Amino acid sequence: MTKQVAVVLAGCGVFDGSEIYETTLTLLRLDQLGIDYRCFAPDIEQHHVVNHLTQEAQEGEPRNVLQESARLARGEIQPLDELKASEFDAVIVPGGFGVAKNLSDFASEGDGMQVLEALKEALTPFWEDAKPIGMMCISPVLVPRLLGDSIAVTVGHDPSVAGAISAMGGLHRSCAVDDIVVDLEHRVVTTPAYMLATRISEAATGIFKLVDRIDEMMDQKPLNP
């Protein structure tokens, strides 16, 4: 049977949603590998809306995370509370500041953050069933609160985010933009993507490696079943 991967989005746009290039590169690589995917996003109001031309927050312009994420998924998307781990072999969460604003409150609370409960409910079963989990850009910051302590992840070389990960009980590993960090025991794969990338081709190399490793891990038995 064809492998199935869930992709969790946080809106549309680097400053207030999911990073568009990261999302597109993820979906492209899944398709190139012949892997089926479905996109999901929480049906909630965005933390705020950012004018991507000026990078300033817009007042009085509320938007819905699910509706905005639908722009990236060409309308083929479901509410996050409909994500059932039993129907998928792995899950991937692209980056973008929507992760730190809509899927969590990391942008305002730092290492005191909380993760959106709907995200925790959706991803915990993947963790419990030892199904591979991919995170990129800023999304690895969710791992200590979402999955637990002592899981190796990367956001590249950012000292403040790395420090927050460590303060929450995570293990941060420095990583080049074109590489990945793999925690084989916990079956978590991360890459810096646009935490470091200056060109789309740089982001693509690491993201493709992440998706390729997720593909391999779906064929492998977990170390601690």
From TrEMBL:
| Keywords (A to Z) from UniProt | Lyase
Which Gene Ontology molecular function entries are recorded, alphabetically? Answer: lyase activity
**Record field: catalytic activity:** glyoxal + H2O = glycolate + H(+)
Instruction: Please explain the role this protein plays, according to its UniProt record.
Output: Displays glyoxalase activity, catalyzing the conversion of glyoxal to glycolate.
Q: Member of which family?
A: Belongs to the peptidase C56 family.
**What name does this protein carry?**
Glyoxalase
Which species is this record about? Vreelandella songnenensis
What lineage, starting at the top, does this entry show?
Answer: Bacteria, Pseudomonadati, Pseudomonadota, Gammaproteobacteria, Oceanospirillales
